[in-house]
Design a protein that fits this description.
- Its cofactor is [4Fe-4S] cluster.
- The protein is of the alpha/beta class.
- Helices cover 38% and strands 9% of the residues.
- A 6-stranded parallel β-sheet has the order 3-4-5-6-7-8.
Length: 414
């Protein structure tokens, strides 16, 4: 096989990494190299690849260590039976690329994953070695996210957490049957066992940091996972239930949803078409409702249709409100925060503003309009001192009134 240049490897392995969505850096601790010590930081602005909790852009070099793989997962473009160009970096090459890109202000961190080459342990050793070179030899203080391998020795995964800001283990598919059918080399219980050990390590070392000043950090930005949407017959209800269980059992920072994308030389067991991208968006919205709006998984499922999937034309919060109209309208001057968070069109920021404003005056409809982005969506579900929706909330055509209007795209729009 001909020797590839670094640029050729980068083109192949960066493109191969695009199918992994779970690379956001929310939750990372702020670190810098002030005082002349170390290289890199997780602060400042750069190429927009991921976001920290306060809105800062974190630019990441997102690549695979190698796209060679001994596994044969049907949905993966890098599976062993796939006819794709192969390439492989050494840990030193990835470390050198990361430092070179950082010094040119291209990136502020690294997201590193890999196909399984030789064995799970060998691959995990290579991932850990890359992070070790960056941290110990270059004193790199930027963000590092390592995609760990559940089949690898637990000690290797533990070492990864000592070097990385975040670690992630993909559950891949929402149902055990789907995983068995499409990823025969993977085992759901093994994946969950690895996630459980990472959770225990995070909790244990976080507690140690409280008692011992110099105790090591372990994945301070937590762990995340990813599920592929639309590769199997799993419904949105299945996906929401799985995500809820993962949050509860393993304390995940994020569950990412990646719409299945048809790949070159695809397996015959896969769908011929990708699911609508809006489906992925609706799942993220439902995830937000569970994490920040107080919705329970069962309530999200209630918003789904008879086929178990969320409606695509309206968001899940509005779908739930239309199914349970008896809970509306709510009085913005009297309702509890939990009730206001269920009003379609009111986000967490708008609710916070309403709670502050009503301490000082009785709110009118115009006041609410100034505190939210779309008063038209809110009006049917609220009461103010000068507004009551009367029969508007119960109108049979309310859904069509509130659903986003379809727009014809313009070829030469400015």
């Amino acid at each position: 096989m001909a020797t590839r240049t670094t640029l050729e490897k980068l083109q192949i392995l960066a493109d191969a990494a695009k199918y992994d969505a779970s690379c956001a850096s929310s939750g990372t601790a702020k670190k810098n190299s002030l005082g002349g010590k170390g290289i890199g930081s997780t602060e400042g602005m750069g190429i927009c690849h991921a976001y920290a909790p306060d809105g800062r852009c974190i630019s990441l070099l997102k690549i695979l260590l190698t796209n060679h793989c001994v596994f044969d997962c049907h949905y993966c473009v890098n599976r062993k039976s796939s006819n794709v160009e192969r390439a492989r970096f050494t840990p030193q090459e990835v470390a050198d690329l990361t430092i070179a890109f950082y010094k040119r202000n291209y990136i502020e961190g690294l997201f590193l994953s890999s196909g399984i080459v030789k064995s799970s342990n060998h691959t995990m050793e290579q991932l850990v070695e890359t992070a070790r070179i960056l941290r110990e030899e270059h004193d790199f203080r930027g963000y590092i996210h390592l995609k760990t391998i559940p089949e690898a020795d637990p000690e290797l995964v533990h070492q990864a957490g000592l070097y990385a800001d975040r670690v992630s283990i993909n559950v891949e598919l929402p149902t055990d049957s789907g995983l068995t059918r499409l990823a025969p080399d993977k085992n759901a219980r093994q994946i969950e066992g690895a996630m459980g050990r990472v959770k225990s390590d995070i909790v244990e070392l976080k507690d140690a940091r409280k008692r011992f000043k110099h105790a090591p950090r372990f994945a301070p930005a937590g762990q995340s996972t990813q599920m592929i949407v639309g590769a199997d017959a799993a419904t949105d209800s299945d996906i929401v239930g799985k995500a809820s269980g993962l949050y509860k059992s393993f304390g995940l920072r994020r569950v990412y949803y990646s719409a299945f994308s048809p790949i070159p030389d695809a397996s015959a067991v896969l769908p011929l078409k990708r699911p609508p991208l809006i489906r992925e968006h609706r799942l993220y919205q439902s995830d937000w409702l569970m994490r920040f709006y107080g919705f329970k998984p069962g309530e999200i499922v209630q918003a789904a249709g008879a086929d178990g999937n969320l409606p695509l034309d309206i968001d899940p919060k509005l779908a739930w409100a239309l199914k349970f109209r008896e809970t509306f309208p709510v009085d913005v001057n009297r309702a509890a925060k939990e009730q206001l968070l269920r009003v379609p069109g009111l986000g967490t920021t708008a609710v916070k503003r309403i709670l502050i404003a009503r301490r000082h005056r009785t709110l009118r409809l115009d006041d609410v309009a100034k505190l939210t982005q779309s008063i038209a969506k809110v009006r049917p579900f609220i009461v103010t001192c000068d507004w009551r929706p009367t029969f508007l909330t119960d109108r049979a055509d309310l859904r069509s009134m509130l659903a986003p209007k379809a727009e014809q795209l313009e070829l030469f729009a400015a």
